[in-house]
Amino acid sequence: MSDTALLVMDVQHGIMNRVTDPDYAARAARAVATARDAGVPVLHVVIGFRPGSPKANERNKSFGALPPDVFTDDDPGSAIHEAVAPRPDEPVITKKRVSAFAGSDLELVLRTHGIEHLVLTGVATSGVVLSTLRQAADLDYRLTVLTDACHDPDPEVHRVLTEKVFPRQADVITIEEWAKTLA
């Protein structure tokens, strides 16, 4: 069993409809295929809320102003994008805030499966990827970020994070470079 897992984070229709890079979904799918071919577990992380309940206090700029039905089970935008659709044996982790760990059972799932190395992908680089990387580093996980399997609406923010910030706590490589390490 691999001690590594690929986290595919926030690749949901309601988020992907704001991705401006037309090739992003195909690259994310290539990262998933690379993991599956190498026997690396794939974990899908999604944002999800209960219907009709407040998502957050109005002071929360990210979640406080969301409509009441967004990212609930009935919201089509909450569905994982078909390019990276989970297989029946792949866990789907539901989080309540930006970090994949916030309000989820991710840490329990990782410990249960002996996962010590996280390979991070997702939308947005400045959101879920940054928040998850920081928390995972504090929890002593070994980290890799796949630069071309992450997307941010601001290309300069993506560049600064992947070239200057993330390397302090993670290996930052491309999908192709990661595939070579798995061969």
From TrEMBL:
One of its GO terms (molecular function) is hydrolase activity. Keywords: Hydrolase. Residues 4-177 form the Isochorismatase-like domain. It holds the Pfam family Isochorismatase. Signal peptide: none annotated. InterPro entries: Isochorismatase-like_dom, Isochorismatase-like_hydrls, Isochorismatase-like_sf. This is Cysteine hydrolase. It comes from Actinoallomurus iriomotensis.
